[in-house]
Amino acid sequence: MRVLSYRRVSELDRLMREFIPLGEDVRFLVPSRRDRSWWLDRSGNGEFGLAEVPTDVLWNWQDLYEDVAAFTEGRRLRPIDPPDHRLILSRLLGDLLKEEPKLLTLWPGLGRKGFLDILSEDIRELLNEAILPEQTEAGLPEDNPTSQVLPRLYRSYLKYLEDNGLMDSAQICTATLSLLESSSLPWGSDFALVLTGFLSFTQAQVRLVRKLNDRCREVIVLKPEADLPHFHDAARQLEKLTWEEEPRRVPGRILRMRTTESELEAEAAARALALWSAGRGPLSSERDFPGFGAVGIMLPSDGEEAVSEALTRYAVPHSAAQGISVDRTLPGRVLSAMWVLRSQGFRTYDTALFLAQPCFTGEEFSVAEALKAGPYGLAGWKAYLGEKTPLKDGRRERRSSALRALLATERFCRVLARGAPPPDLMEAFHKFLCEKGLWLDRLKALPLSYPELDETIRTTASAVDSVREKALALRELLPDIGPLGRQALKGEDAAEFLQIWCRETRIRPTPPLAGAVTLHTGPPPVLASYPVWIMLGVSQRDWPGRIAGSPLLGGPERERLAEAEAWLPSIQDKHLQREALFRRLILTGEEMTILSKAEADDNGRPIPETPFLDRFMADMGDWALRTLPVEGIDILLPTDGHAFEDVDAPLDERARRFDPVAGSCGRMEERPLTLAVSDLQTLLECPLRYWLQRRARLRERPLGLVSAADWGALTHKFWERVWRRFDERREGFLEIADAEWRALSAVDTEYTAYAPMIRDRRLGRRREILRLRVMRLAVLQARILERLAQAGFRHRAILLEEDAELLCELEGVRFSGRCDRVEILEGRDGALRAVITDYKTGRSARYEEGLSGLERYPWHDGGLDRFLRGLQLSSYALMYARQHSDAVLAGVCLLGHQDGGLAGTFSEELRGPCTAELRGEKKGNRCTLEERQEEARYAMVCAARILGEGRFAPFYGAPSCRYCGMKSVCRRGETVGEALGPEEDPDE
Question: Domains in the chain: how many in total?
Answer without folding.
Answer: 5
